């Protein structure tokens, strides 16, 4: 640019000097380039100043050119400097905004390297893709007829789901088949219930529904008196014992519900010496008003009675081939017969009872029934219960479809739902299957539109859920040695919709923060404009949503057996949904209970699960609360501290537990701080921390009990003497019943729990040179 200006100036100057006649005009033109507007108005002879300028104008012109060039350079440098500063500030501001937005559940940067979509964009995309109508249609299709495992209806449904997975063009779709031992009613010999006299003569044959049975009940016949035991909870049997009522040899009648599964009711009755069990739905618990939508009094509720999960004849190992294993029977199988009965049959039996009056809280709403506990019937009658079920090996099919992760494909986020049902199963299997298929379709479309999940998504349709999550548990047993290294979390979609008022989340504590962030993002299905979180806060607090995992949950085995963080979500109404586990569990009745909002409620559940899956599939570091179990153990430590005087008087000290709890808390907090101050965008660093985070749940599986004899080894969520609940219950005997306190047993329980907790602390610390265990002798 400088050369061009100089040449132009020289040319003009030569031209002006050569034309003397036009000197004045040329001078006027040249001077107009450098003089002010005021000079332009002058029209007289050339002044001395003008002559001086003309004499030296070549030198001045060169200086002017240099000055202009310097100005351009300075301006350009200043512009670039200002751009860099402002751009840096804007980038920092954007980074800070993104971090703040991530804490609020908003847009965060793409998870992997290369181009990708932000979390906020993915959330909007997911919401647009989820469809109410598809969920409603699938529930109707699945629940149009009963479809138990091994039936033609069940096989046809499995084929349809496999076809729908394949139509989605996921990365991988396959099935896994296995044989498991299931139990069904014996068609050659029906179960029966009779009233007999003292000599055993039949006085009355009580009518039963031939399709009603409890899978895995003991078979055989028992005869005795009748004892009413309310819900069959431990407290109920303790009250009977304190009232001097023995259930030994009697048929115990119990109500459905009370927070106790059928399997636990039968197990407790057996422990107390009962000869058999009858379980009925009371109108006080399940609505049976003919003027409103509810059960009729001639409908029973069925449920399996195996105190465990999976095939009870291959406990702790998979049912791939029965011929390879010795005949081993689960300790959770009952030895007494059990049968579901209707409210009509229960009223017929309980109306003839005599004996002590029951507590007021035990009173149900059976017509013409006085609340007495028995065990005697009028006129010296007794009850004879005969159960005839038959075991059979059934071919099961679990169906899988997956989207492979782009950064850490060997880390799996698993979503699953039960497919089978003994009845129509709108709630039991239809809802979960519909949401599973809709989420699979949604995420497959999102991948085609640019979603690049960091981790793999695995969608599974399980078989034989009605018999104690057999399909899911057998799969866990087959892959147990690797799942704690690969499975990030499991979401059970079983029975997710039984209403649209109240959300419950049965979950591992590790997933609580993830859940809390999700409910702040998703709109309540019944209250437009309100999130699930805000509605829960209005109704008493969002903390009410979180509940512990329970035995019959589809998520339970994943955590209690395999050490994988798991969650099962459920929307309910204040008035219980009465049709689950009955032949009346149809899509039309569910739609009527929901006031026509089945699709809307299913979409809300899908969005809620999808929100959590997005975070797990997107974030560089897994958003699991690794410090959560420290609070659980702290609460137990407080109970120990209250009994420290009694323990020390017996030569027992709680200091060992206190030390292990402190070690775990410090290790978890140290790991969390290390994560917070690390470069999480570095793939090696992220991988290192994610591997440790994924093992936290697994660390709470006791290594000191057998997976075959005690499959639910988790010390917080499991079952057995090694668990925190068993230890707490035993500790309570110090004040409630000191004579029953077993010091030797308590020492063993305390040791099993403490060593598992200390092992978890050591594992969280990482390398062995970071662990410093120094135990004093107390």
Automatic annotation (TrEMBL):
Annotated stretches, region: Disordered: 1-23, 96-115
Keywords on record: Membrane, Transmembrane, Transmembrane helix
Transmembrane residue ranges: 64-86
Start and end residues of each Peptidase M28 domain: 398-575
Organism superkingdom: Eukaryota
A cellular-component GO term for this protein: external side of plasma membrane
Topology with respect to the bilayer: Single-pass type II membrane protein
GO annotation terms (biological process): endocytic iron import into cell
Domain PA: 223-291
Pfam families: PA (PF02225), Peptidase_M28 (PF04389)
Subcellular location: Cell membrane
CDD domains: M28_TfR
Alphabetical list of PANTHER family matching this protein: N-ACETYLATED-ALPHA-LINKED ACIDIC DIPEPTIDASE, TRANSFERRIN RECEPTOR PROTEIN 2
Similarity-based family: Belongs to the peptidase M28 family. M28B subfamily.
Protein name: Transferrin receptor 2
